[in-house]
Design goal:
The chain has seven helices and twelve strands. The protein is of the alpha+beta class and about 290 residues long.
Length: about 290
Amino acid sequence: MTSGKIRSLLLAPVLLLAACQSQTAEKAPKEPFLGPVPIATRTPVDAALECLSKTPEVQRYPRMFAVHVITDQTGRYSSEEAGNYLPRDSAGMMVSLLQKAGVKQVNRSNTAVSEWEIARAREQILGDGGNVVVGDESLPFRPLVKGALRGSDYVIDGVITQLDFNTYSSGLEATVGGGGGGARRFAVTAAVDIRVTDTKSTRIVKAKSYSKQAVGREVFASVFRFFSDELFDIKIGTKSQEGLQAAIRWTLADATYDLVKELTGHKGACDVYLPKASQDDRAETAVVAPTN
């Protein structure tokens, strides 16, 4: 037997015992950093939307709403930062806001799963975990029932047409990325064009443009407070743009309140929950019918 083979035989038991030993940590594991608790996103209009949901006009309203797309057509893009400043489609925001307002909805924004399951049900290979009784017959697959899908009465779509933002300090305006001494402000102006279409006739029922300016007050370095209970880290010159999203959500919330109020025939009792500036704006733009 060669010396190399003898050496291997002698080392084998040592390596085997070493493999059986448990590894001990050099230090005690650290507690994971969890960060802040996620909170529900709110706007200054949410209280008015929730008020609408409790009114008899909305609760008894039989019409079904659907949201199609709300696209970004501002053309605001940064090759050095996060690409598009806004999501390509803000329909999800409108769906959430309509839900707060209490109206009935059907999903028309993303029907991929429903379409896939309908296709499998048509092939009779989709089941529900057991037999389905239809009349006197027990079926091992999910049957397609005629008229099971609820159609919509109104479809909402729109475009984001304006997005402007500036930081300014002590009354001196500067573009995003600029500096300046003193307490800074971050102003975001957004405009959205929304239309409501009768699904059956394609007649446009409502069409209106909404514009909103949200002004944030700097409380820390590049951290601005827009609403009373939320902070948005703008991080001027980097990828974070939470304040811009807040302005769009606020604008859509304003539009949602008006649309639901007008379509359901609500008398305006929930206007008191709107921000004071919104109440004043509605009072100024109210159309007074001629008295002749």
